[in-house]
Automatic annotation (TrEMBL), chain A:
One of its GO terms (molecular function) is ATP hydrolysis activity. Keywords: ATP-binding, Nucleotide-binding, Transport. One of its GO terms (biological process) is carbohydrate transport. SUPFAM superfamilies: MOP-like, P-loop containing nucleoside triphosphate hydrolases. Transmembrane segments: none annotated. This is ABC transporter ATP-binding protein. It holds the Pfam family OB_MalK. Residues 4-234 form the ABC transporter domain.
TrEMBL record, chain B:
Residues 88-280 form the ABC transmembrane type-1 domain. InterPro entries: MetI-like, MetI-like_sf. Gene3D superfamilies: MetI-like. It is a multi-pass membrane protein. This is Carbohydrate ABC transporter permease. The keyword Transcription does not apply. The chain crosses the membrane at residues 20-41, 94-112, 124-144, 156-179, 200-221, 263-285. Keywords: Membrane, Transmembrane, Transmembrane helix, Transport. Coiled coil: none annotated. Pfam families: BPD_transp_1. Belongs to the binding-protein-dependent transport system permease family. It comes from Paenirhodobacter populi. One of its GO terms (cellular component) is plasma membrane. It is found in: Cell membrane. The lineage of its organism: Bacteria, Pseudomonadati, Pseudomonadota, Alphaproteobacteria, Rhodobacterales.
């Protein structure tokens, strides 16, 4: 039995099914990131867990007991809202102390606990200010402090970094990760940013249109996406997708993009329409295992500082390939590349699902 | 002069002229609106002889406050000759509770209609809005009947109730529109923190409501203080509000018309609303603006 269990949860608003049967399990101390495009129902799910919106069907259990009929304040859950939801008329100190005050904690204990949390988050010098006098990053910290001070059994974060600028986002992201490592809190975190999901999560749940597409560790999600949506949504640049038809002998894929046929590690039914997914790092300079070498013309050169991405012309398709930053290249040149087909993920073009058995873990592929 | 300077000066010329025109017009209108007040004030400080012989726009030659004293304490209204002071207090006793109760109830209604929505909340709000457009005259008889049944006829409490009921539509409208833009996440956050219905209202919502409270109080105060129809219909004799007494004073004084006393009484009657505007006017404008931008 997992610490958090969500069981075929549904929510319908005005005839629209927003959540269509969500099943999630999370162990105590886990960091679950719910990721998906805007409007897919992430906030709705989080609000259902918090008790702010009632599900129309299904169950939510924490530590073995159902909470769906409990008032939000009785669930022992704290939430950090996207807008931070700081009480504008109270000082930072009063904001952080508010949940303690509502719980009836005596004044001197409140002051002590607020001080301790403020110290952890380095906002001690802000305690007498009003929220309006804080920067975005400071408000974010105060919101986290107000959640932390309650020591709840579950933390909910709804896109907590989306209002911060890029640099601050990276900083606060690291801070949230550190907080999780130090406190071993159980966290459910919502974001539409796949990089946030990859960096923070111990478990990722990818959602689309109120349906879970895949749940797994970050490396499972990244290396063996369950379908073409997950493959496309997770990772930057997105996975290269090459549609084609399985050849007559079943051992290769003739690409729709042009006169290329790529060999298959595992034979498939001849004539089947499949899509071959290949990450940028599976196209590069190496030359080992199972794959092919192609000479492809360079169209775009994208240095990122740490890496060099080349956009190469493959028939009608454009594929991204990752090289070390030391490689020098210019548009128009011909670049020989190694396609590591052991790391290819094969999807059925029609159903858009991964063809089970066709793709392998990189670790397995190496053997 | 270079072409560039020409351009600047011709551009500045019309700007300056339009400024003159604007200020000129503003001054004219201000004078137009202030003239009655000036006449009232100057007349109230004149003696009856001077009023009869002099120019209506002239300043008092020998200013005297006798008329004010008489209006306040000894002018005859109906059969009693104790001035308007009793009625002034009647109005205060009516307006203070009526404004407070209708404002508090309006705030609670607005809170429920925006943050604790229930099935049919739209219909309830629609009906309250509709109440704003019911003309006074059409409710007089049913209201008199209700007051009779409740035993509140001819009492200040009855008048308070009438004004609260009639004002509720407006105060609810004000607060509903204001709270509609108040972030719901704050309410949800407070709920998760363990705050209940009234705690959220008192600790989170009310402290952020100053602008709309000011707007509502001014609006209600002005309307209730200046009301004549309800006052004359539902209160009589000693329990009449100021407006009714003023009417009786002006219309029923026998013998010579004491214009100076009438004017002094009228200014006294207008004073409270004037003070409310001066004290809270700044916030009034700000509140209206906030409402306009948000709502
Ligand atoms: N109160 C509501 N009434 C109707 N539709 C809603 C309401 N709240 C959310 N929705 C719809 O539910 C879907 C999911 O919303 P939400 O959970 O906020 O998405 P996300 O947080 O993933 O961006 C959206 O398509 C949105 O339009
Ligand atoms: Mg959302």
């Amino acid at each position: 039995m997992a610490f958090i269990e969500i069981d075929s949860l549904e929510r319908t608003i005005g005839g629209n099914k927003i959540l269509k049967g969500i099943d999630i399990e999370l162990e105590k101390g886990g960091f679950l990131v719910l990721v998906g495009p805007s409007g897919c129902g992430k906030s709705t799910l989080l609000n259902a867990i918090a008790g702010l919106q009632q599900p129309t069907a299904g169950d939510i259990r924490i530590d073995g007991t159902s909470v769906v009929n409990l008032h939000p304040s009785k669930r022992d859950i704290a939430m950090v809202f996207q807008s931070y939801a700081l009480y504008p008329n109270m000082t930072v100190g009063e904001n952080i102390a508010f949940p303690l005050e509502m719980a009836g904690t005596p004044k001197e204990n409140r002051t002590k606990e607020v001080g301790a949390v403020a110290k952890t988050l380095q906002i001690e010098h802000l305690l007498d200010r009003k929220p309006a006098q804080l920067s975005g990053g400071q408000r974010q910290r105060v919101a986290m402090a107000r959640a932390l001070v309650r020591k709840p059994r579950l933390f909910l974060f709804d896109e907590p970094l989306s209002n911060l600028d890029a640099k601050l986002r990276v900083e606060v992201r690291a801070e949230i990760k550190r907080l999780h490592q130090n406190t071993h809190a159980t966290i459910i975190y919502v974001t539409h940013d796949q990089i946030e999901a990859m960096t923070l999560a111990t478990k990722i749940v990818v959602m689309k249109d109120g349906i879970i597409q895949q749940a797994g560790t970050p490396s499972e999600i990244y290396n063996t996406p369950a379908n073409m949506f997950v493959a496309d949504f997770m990772g930057s640049p997105a996975m290269n997708m090459l549609p084609g038809t399985v050849t007559a002998d079943g051992r290769g894929v003739a690409l729709d993009a042009g006169a290329f046929t790529l060999p298959l590690a595992t034979p498939l039914t001849p004539g089947r329409k499949v899509t071959l997914g290949l990450r940028a790092e599976a196209i590069g300079a190496g030359q080992s295992g199972f794959g092919v070498t192609l000479d492809l013309p360079v169209e775009i050169v994208e240095p990122t500082g740490s890496d060099l991405y080349l956009w190469l012309r493959l028939g009608k398709a454009l594929v991204s390939a990752r090289f070390p930053a030391t490689v020098e290249q210019r548009p128009g040149a011909i670049q020989p590349v190694w396609l590591d087909l052991n790391r290819a993920v094969i999807f059925d073009t029609e159903s858009r699902e991964r063809i089970v058995g066709a793709a392998q873990e990189p670790a397995l592929a190496a053997t | 002069m270079s072409a560039r300077e020409m351009a600047i000066s011709t551009a500045a010329g019309p700007a300056r002229w339009s400024r003159v025109v604007i200020y000129g017009l503003l001054i004219v209108f201000a004078l137009f609106y202030l003239t009655p007040l000036f006449v009232m004030l100057s007349t109230s400080f004149k003696t009856l002889d001077e009023i009869r012989s002099g120019n209506i726009l002239a300043l008092p030659a020998h200013p005297t406050a006798d008329a004010w004293g008489k209006a306040w304490g000894s002018a005859c209204i109906g059969v009693t000759c104790e001035g308007i002071k009793g009625y002034f207090w009647n109005s205060i006793k009516m307006v203070v509770p009526a404004v407070l109760i209708s404002t508090v109830l309006g705030a609670l209604n607005g809170y429920v209609l925006t943050k604790w929505r229930f099935p049919g909340h739209r219909i309830v709000f629609g009906m309250m809005l509709f109440a704003c457009f019911i003309p006074f005259q059409s409710v007089l008889i049913p209201m008199a009947r209700v007051l009779g049944i409740l035993g509140l006829s001819n009492t200040t409490a009855g008048l308070v109730m009438v004004h609260v009921v009639y004002g509720l539509g407006f105060t609810t409208l004000f607060f509903r529109n204001y709270y509609d833009t108040f972030p719901t996440e704050l309410i949800q956050s407070a709920q998760m923190d363990g705050a209940g219905f009234f705690t959220i209202f008192r600790r989170i919502l009310l402290p952020s409501s100053a602008p709309i409270i000011v707007v509502t109080v001014i609006y209600q105060f002005t309307n209730i203080w200046n009301d004549f129809l309800f006052g004359v219909s539902f209160a009589s004799g000693g329990s009449s509000p100021m407006t009714v007494a003023l009417n009786n004073l002006v219309s029923s004084s026998t013998g010579v018309k004491e214009y100076n006393v009438d004017m002094a009484a009228a200014v006294i009657a207008a004073l409270p609303t004037l003070i409310v505007y001066i004290v809270a006017g700044r916030y009034f404008m700000r509140g209206l603006m906030a409402g306009a931008i948000k709502g």
